[in-house]
Specification:
flat, Arc Repressor Mutant, subunit A, 6 helices, two-stranded antiparallel ribbon, about 150 residues, Dna Ligase, domain 1, 2 domains
Length: about 150
């Protein structure tokens, strides 16, 4: 039996549509955290007629299936990723350029989930976002201040 997430989904009786396959592939192969519009744009040539509502419906399906995670960043658009592992992970977001980076933390989600459960909370969705200024933006800001 395959350990590929989509193969497991099919083995459990779920229909694998071209939209589901291609959207998951784009997310899984991307190092970026993509918006629904970015996903639609990347697939426009491979799936003619793909519209934004279909992308959103597919993302909701894949999220409920546990194959895609959402990342909410302030007032900006929701971003999506298909991580290698199921554990949620913190993200660093640069206030200057908007770059998003993963922070590898062994067991943090498990610890936070256990803390929530111990207090009687159910259905946790753990999302940790640290907003800061990346080294490149900090350097640009320093150079701009010096040149003023």
């Amino acid at each position: 039996m395959s350990h590929h997430p989509l193969a497991q989904m099919v083995a459990n009786g779920t229909r694998l549509t071209p939209q589901r396959q291609l959207i998951w592939d784009v997310l899984h192969q991307s190092a970026e955290h993509l918006t629904a519009e970015e996903i639609r744009t990347r697939l426009a040539g491979r799936l003619p007629g793909l519209n934004l509502p279909t992308v959103y419906r597919t993302l909701v399906f894949l999220r409920h299936a546990g194959l895609v995670q959402e990342l909410h960043l302030g007032d900006g658009p929701v971003r999506y990723e298909a991580p290698e592992v199921d554990e949620r992970h913190p993200h660093l977001v640069c206030r200057g350029c908007g770059r998003i980076e993963h922070v590898e933390t062994d067991g943090l989600s498990v610890t936070l989930g256990a803390a929530a459960s111990a207090r009687g909370y159910a259905d946790q969705e753990i999302e940790i976002v640290v907003y800061a200024t990346c080294a490149e933006c900090a350097e640009l800001r320093t150079l701009a201040a010096v040149n003023e």
